[in-house]
């Protein structure tokens, strides 16, 4: 199982992180989480117990950030999909949500999507 790999005694969790830009609100973070939970194939991964989506406090945001320092963390709990595929699914869903939000509310929430465990060089 992917999430069971250890790294120096710690469990290495694979997945992606989604952080919205400084213009985003707490409501935007909640709305995006709901959107992701209902998007195929993410919805299927959640239903099968292979994915978990959490709202977490940002750990590496810029100093002086305005707005919520929250991010969504999508953690793979099984080995049925790769991080690359999860990133593709997430990117597509976030792009659609961003376009809808922009059309309805204006502005750009400036999403950033990246792996939880960046490769170490």
Report the strand count.
Answer: 6
Shape: globular
Give the helices and strands as they follow along the chain.
EEEHHEEHE
Low-confidence stretches: 1-10
Give helix % range: 25-40%
Distance between the termini: 24 Å
Q: Structural class of the helices, strands and pairings?
A: alpha+beta
Strand content: 15-25%
Biggest sheet layout: 4 strands, antiparallel
Sum this structure up briefly.
This protein is an alpha+beta fold. It has 3 helices and 6 strands. The strands form 2 sheets. A 4-stranded antiparallel beta sheet has the order 4-5-3-6. A two-stranded antiparallel ribbon has the order 1-2.
Structure description:
The structure is a single chain. By secondary structure, the chain is an alpha+beta fold. The chain is built from 3 helices and 6 strands; from the N terminus they run βββααββαβ. The chain has helices spanning 26-38, 42-47, 83-105, and strands at residues 6-7, 10-11, 15-19, 51-57, 70-76, 112-115. The strands form 2 sheets. It has a 4-stranded antiparallel sheet. Strands 1-2 form a two-stranded antiparallel sheet. A hairpin with a 2-residue loop joins strand 1 (6-7) and strand 2 (10-11). The longest helix has 23 residues, at 83-105. The protein is globular.
